[in-house]
Amino acid sequence: xxxxxxxxxxxxxxxxxxxxxxxxxxxxxxxxxxxxxxxxxxxxxxxxxxxxxxxxxxxxxxxxxxxxxxxxxxxxxxxxxxxxxxxxxxxxxxxxxxxxxxxxxxxxxxxxxxxxxxxxxxxxxxxxxxxxxxxxxxxxxxxxxxxxxxxxxxxxxxxxxxxxxxxxxxxxxxxxxxxxxxxxxxxxxxxxxxxxxxxxxxxxxxxxxxxxxxxxxxxxxxxxxxxxxxxxxxxxxxxxxxxxxx
Length: 246
Prior knowledge:
The chain is α/β, with parallel strands linked by helices. The chain has helices spanning 20-30, 46-54, 69-83, 106-134, 155-175, 194-199, 201-204, 215-227, and strands spanning 8-14, 34-39, 59-63, 84-91, 137-144, 180-187, 236-239. The protein contains eight helices and seven strands.
């Protein structure tokens, strides 16, 4: 077990993809935190780990399925024992899979809920246990348009994201009085990703006019949430481009 002096300050990003999750990890690493990042396929983390280390940051990558309780418990225990204290948890699993409610299967509906909501509960619970002992920490859940309204053909995704938002609200009301800042971020709009570039070229063309979300700018807002003084904490932050319809 690491002593308090040996322990690094860790930012754990669950779902550190090539866009938002990776940008969040880079931002916290730039701020002096050791970035611990997860994906189901650890090999896909190598470019992110290399980029962080190339700029002098510290980073560790883990293959972990956020839906599996034993994997989540093992991950958190390993980080706390071998790397440092988890000061920040960012739960950034997407699970945005469209489907008509007429064609949706029970299996896929349940899987989307597991990814977008159950995973948030498992990771949030395990990290909160450690933060509670220290009476400090930040837990941020990434939401979406579907957190607030259910669109046609997104019944499973909307149900899961609504549930994640409710989980975040409940955790905030329970944990804020103990010094743990729980927040929920609604990201409403297209993000600068290869998927948007390839599949929605007209939308991607608005990038020159700041018409899509820049992952680095999203990450700056997560950093700001973590750095807020506790006399002015934000629970819910709404991020969207200036031209996005409400």
